[in-house]
Amino acid sequence: MLYILTALRCEASQLQRLPGEIIVTGVSQSCRNVLDGINLAKGDRIMNIGVCAANRKTAAAGDIFAAQSVLMPDDGDGAGRRFYPDIPAGILIDELPLVTVTEIEHEPREGCMYDMEAGYIAGYAFRYLPPSSFMAIKVVSDDGSSIPSASQVSELIRARLPEIKRTADVFAAQDPERDYLPLDRKLTEQLRLTEYMNNELEEIEHYCVCAGRVGELYEILGKLREQGVIPCTTKAMGREVLDAVYSYLR
After folding, report:
1. What string of pLDDT tens digits covers the 250 residues of the chain?
2. H or E segment at 4?
3. d(CA 127, CA 107)
4. pTM exceeding 0.90
5. How many Å is the maximal CA-CA distance in the chain?
6. Angle at the Cα of 142 from the Cα atoms of 158 and 107, rounded to 5 degrees
């Protein structure tokens, strides 16, 4: 099943011909109650479609992007985590990082997009699905200086329906068994990581999956084990392992 999640009804009203079940989530914390009502199963996918804000030097109103990464807001569970969707081949739209905020962003910085729901949706999706089963598609609606009306939002989505539908068709048609083997949780226990550091490791893992570098990740962890760095005896040693992995992957 493909679930198409939008924050606003004026967005959802333009998506009726897409191949999936459309669900309106609302924005910010209100997303969570809706998300908890979706019973995900293996092979399901989630696509978040909606409008976003972006700096004028980054994009103009009406431009469309796939989220290269999604940063959760600093509130509640998973605060500040970044997710890396595994965007399938055949998606012909440009990519930008996406930041989810709890309040309207009036001064978006260059180089990324801002919305109020994708981070919550990604946090939910990545609990149950691999990175290849989540996407966020955003149409730029404003630069933060003014809020578009519902009719303006609908028009922006409608104008980009050909790209949105083509992307949804490609996303829905990919192999549902496309997946990867996550890191052995016994290994992560041996690293003695704090909750924050464990989130960092998951982000590294997701990046490696999306970038095709999982083998490199296993290789550096294997070398650290051979060197006697793993298993770690302190959280400080766990921090050193993460820093070594970051350095290796740069």
Report:
1. 899 999 999 999 999 889 889 999 998 878 878 888 888 888 899 999 999 999 999 999 999 999 999 998 876 665 678 898 888 777 889 999 999 999 989 999 999 999 999 999 998 898 888 888 999 999 999 999 999 999 999 999 999 999 999 999 988 887 655 555 567 767 778 999 888 888 788 778 777 776 667 778 888 888 898 899 999 999 999 999 999 998 888 7
2. strand 2-6
3. 31
4. no
5. 62
6. 155
Q: Specify the CATH class of 2-173 in words.
A: alpha beta
- Domain ranges in the chain are 2-173, 185-249
Tally of residues, the chain: 250
Name residue 50's amino acid: G
Tokens of 24: 């309106």
DSSP the chain: -EEEEES-HHHHTT-TTSSSEEEE--STTHHHHHHTT----TT-EEEEEEEEEE-TTT--TT-EEEEEEEEPPSSSTTTT-EE---PPTT--S-EEEEEE-SS--SSPPTT-EEESSHHHHHHHHHHHS-GGGEEEEEEEEE-SSSPPPHHHHHHHHHHTHHHHHHHHHHHHHS-TT---PPPPHHHHHHTT--HHHHHHHHHHHHHHHHHT-HHHHHHHHHHHHHTT--S-SSHHHHHHHHHHHHHHH-
Q: Yes or no: say if 126 and 83 are a contact pair by the CB < 8 Å rule.
A: yes
